[in-house]
Structures are given as structure tokens and as C-alpha cells.
From TrEMBL:
Organism expressing this protein natively: Exiguobacterium aurantiacum
PANTHER family registered for this protein in UniProt: CHROMATE ION TRANSPORTER (EUROFUNG) (PTHR33567)
Domain of life, source organism: Bacteria
Primary subcellular site in the record, as a coarse category: membrane
Entry's family note: Belongs to the chromate ion transporter (CHR) (TC 2.A.51) family.
Places the protein is found: Cell membrane
Gene: chrA
Protein name: Chromate efflux transporter
Regions that span the bilayer: 55-76, 88-109, 115-136, 148-180, 200-219, 231-249, 294-314, 326-346, 377-393
Amino acid sequence: MSNQRVTFKTLLEILFVSTRLGLTSFGGPVAHLGYFHEEYVRRRKWMDERAYADLVALCQFLPGPASSQVGIGIGIVRGGILGGITSFIGFTAPSVIALILFALLVSGLDVTDAGWLYGLKVVAVAIVAHAILGMAGKLTPDAKTRTIAFFALAGVLLWQTTYSQVLVILLAGLAGFLLFKPQNLDVKSASFPLSKRLGATLLGLFGALLVILPILRETIESQSVAMFDSFYRAGALVFGGGHVVLPLLERELVPAGFLSEEAFLAGYGAAQAVPGPLFTFASYLGTVINGVPGGLLATFAIFLPAFLLILGALPFWDALRRNPKVAGALIGVNAAVVGILIAAFYQPIFTSTVNGAVDFVFAAFLFAMIAYWKMPPWALVIVGVIGGMIIGTL
């Protein structure tokens, strides 16, 4: 595709297929990868098995929303950079629109004591608990990784600042670099239609924005600049997917007074009910803070790092993943993600929601729905809302 002219028909095809996936892809990042494989590899044969596996491996390595980055990468293979942008818009737009509309609804209501809001908060308890167990089993299989996870948990809980998660992730990467030496690395080759010069430029822009935006925030009194900085940093520093963005955004936005904790957790629960990437939670948050323009700004800011990283890293991926030290650092980072997720589960989710036996039993029932009875997240949301309203009347 890199040497072929990208036609309008190709872009329209990408938009149609990705939008259909955006309307039907429930179940989180792992489920999204399954939908992508079925549609793009098995049915349409836009990529072969080997190229798809390479792309998934890269996106799991990078911070940001892995499933969205895979979708962008597939669009790039099919239609170049314009194809990547088109694929992203199609997959993401349905949930962005749904969550902006939900935010407008919430903004016009007094939700402080609403039963349905309580139900959504309990849904968040169940879903994050399930995410913890699933990730811990894969990412902390031994004493070393569990030790890293513990210190990450302690660090972000006992030292709650804007930069605590960043420092924890960096230290965990250093620990992994020193402690782990993976063997038998997968070194299958991949080919994507991007130059190394473009890749290096975009990676440089990614890093420059991480430095420049906080400086601008301190020198310019602007809510928009502050929002852009918060959402960009969250999107740039999240390893582990959408659930891990929760503590970063909560500690960026709630203490600063952008929105209440109740409104924050209501949106997190609602995000479970819509298809597409969980990072569109930012669309809800931005809309609550500053209307539809705020929602669009937050969406752009939180996904921009994903674009810069996937476009920048694709040309260098083969050489990077052949380095066992880099792979070792990733093991440490992934272990820290587990600790950060446990910290987020305790505060603010658990401490602000579970205040008695009824709350705990309700959360346990919702957890059983997703963990034991394999119900989809949207079913939890429905039961959570109805159950919350019933409990609220008792």
C-alpha cells in the first residue's frame, strides 16, 4: 500500500468497516482484538496472521489504548496515514458521541443522591476488581514481579502527586531492565508503509509535548491548556489499557476541582455500557467540564499520544523487540501497572462506594456476573442501574 495511491473508495471502505466495529465491539481491549482478527485478518485478509501478531505485539508494548492503536495500524497498512486516521474515527466515534450525550444529560441533573449513579459506581468496583485479577495472573507470575507491584501500589497511594505514577513507572522499568533477561524473543519481521525519518519526527514530537505542555500550563492561565495537558499526559503514560487511565485522570481532575468524584465515577460506569475504546471516557469528562468543545478537546488530547507513538514506533519495531533488555524493562512496567490498578481500586473506587454490607454484597454479585457467569460489561451496567435504583428506595 505504501507505493499505491490511496483512493477515496479505499478510505470509504475503511470507514465503513471500522464504524461497524465501533458500533458492535463490546467487551474491552482483548475482545476488540478478537473482533479485529475476525474482520480484518480472517474475513477481509487486509493483513496476514504474522503481520497482525507483529502489530498486536507492538501495541501491547507501547503506552496507550492498545486496541485503538491496533486499529490505527491496520488502517495504515490498508490506506497509509489517512487510512489510519479514518480507521480511528470510525472505531471511536460511536462511543465518543454516546458519552458526550450522557455527559450532557448528567450535567443537567442533580446526580448526588441518584440511585442509578450509585449503581454505576458499584459496577466500577466489580469491573476493576475483575481487571485486577486477570492482569495480575498474567503480569505478576513470580515473587519479583509481585514485589514491584507492591512497591508501585505503596508509592501511588502514599505519595499522591501529579508525577507519582510517572516516577513509579520509570522506576519499575529500571527494575525490570536490571532484573529480567527474557529468552526466546519473538523476532518475526513486520513491514509497514512509514519511513524512519517520519517515525523519529513523531516520537520527538511526542516527547516534546510531554515537556512543553506542563510549562505552558504554568505560564498561561487557561482551562483549555490545563485540560489538554492533563488528558495528553494521561494518554501518554498509561500502560495496561483503559482501566489504568482511571487513577491518572482521577488524580488530575477531581482534586483540581474540574468535576466531582460522583460525576467522575458515573461516567466511568457509563463507559462500560458503550462499545469501542474505554479511553473515550475522556469525552464524557471533557463535556462535563466544558461542554461539547471540552469533550472534543479531551478526546483529541488523550488519543494524540497513541497516534504519535504508533506512527513513530512502527518503523523501528523490529530492532526494538530484538533487545532483551527492553523486553525486561517492559516486564517491570507491566508489574507496576498491577500495583497502580490495585491502588485505583482501593481509592477512590472502593472507599467512595462500599460503605456497608449491602454495598459489598451488591458489588460481589456484579463481580460474579462478569467473572463467573461471563456476562458482558453492558449487562452489568443494566443490572447495576436497576439494582442501584431499587436499593436507593429501601
